[in-house]
C-alpha cells in the first residue's frame, strides 16, 4: 500500500513538474542554472521581474523530480538536469503549447462536443517549442540531406514554417537564396516576420498565411526548387487526403526538385490495426510518444506509421530516394522525396 501511494503521488507531482520544466526554460532559469551551476532563486526572480514566491514553488516542483537540488534559497543542478534540458522543448510542447487541449480532455472526449473548433492550443508556444525540437532532433538529419543535394537550389519554401527558424538558418548557410514560409497560424507568422527583419532577412525571406494541405499555384511559387516540411506532415492525413495534398504540391510547385518531409510517426496507439515493425508496447514508451499520439487522437488528427507513409508517395506523385530514421524523442523520420517527373533546372 505504501509503495502504491508513493507511486501515485509521483504521478501527480510529475504532472506539475512537467509544466515547471517548460516554464523554467522559457523564463531562462534552466539556462542560468546550467551556465552558473547554482542560482539564487530570489535574486533571479528580482532580475527577471518574476514573483519570488511562485519561483520558489517552481524550483520545489523541479526538486521533486531531481532536476534541481535546493538549499536555503539556492538551486543547484540535480541528477536529471542535463537530460531534462535536452527534452525541454518536448515538455514545453506538452504543458504549454498543448496544455489547453489536455486540460479539457473531459470535454474533448465527448462526441457531442467534437464539432467546429472543439479544442484549443497555443500556436505561439508551439512554435517556440518546435523551434528547439527541430534543432535538437531533426536538424542533424536535415543538414545531412542538404549537404547531399545534387543540384544548387535558389528558392526554398517551408510548409508549416512556424517560427521561421529553419528558413533563416538555410538562408544564412546558402547566400544568394531566397525563402518563403507558409503557415496557417497568423500569430506565429507575425513573430517569425519580426525575427526575420531583426536578423536582416527582409529582402530574402517572406511569410504568407495558407493551409499547406490545399495550396494552389501562386506566382511566388513559380521558381521554388526546394520544399521542406517538418512536424506537420500528419496534418495531410487520412490517406486519401494525403495523396491529394501530395499531388497538389507537385502542381503547385512545378520546379521543385526535392522535398524534405520530416515528422514523428505512430508506434504506440492502434498499431495492431496497422502493423508496424517499429511498434512499442505500454511498458516501453519513449518520451513524447504518448503525448504526441494521444494529443492528436484527441484533436481527431490521424498519425501514420512509417509504413503508411511509404505507401502514399508513388500515388502522390513523389519518389522516396532516401529515408533517415530519427529515434531521439520517439520515432521520427525524414524522407527525401523527388517528383516522379523531374523538371530540368
From TrEMBL:
GO molecular function annotations of the record: methyltransferase activity
Gene3D superfamilies found in the cross-reference section: Vaccinia Virus protein VP39 (3.40.50.150), Winged helix-like DNA-binding domain superfamily/Winged helix DNA-binding domain (1.10.10.10)
Keywords tagged on the record: Methyltransferase, Transferase
GO BP, one annotated term: methylation
CDD domains xref list: AdoMet_MTases
Methyltransferase as UniProt keyword: yes
Domain Methyltransferase: 156-251
Protein name: Methyltransferase MppJ
Origin species: Delitschia confertaspora ATCC 74209
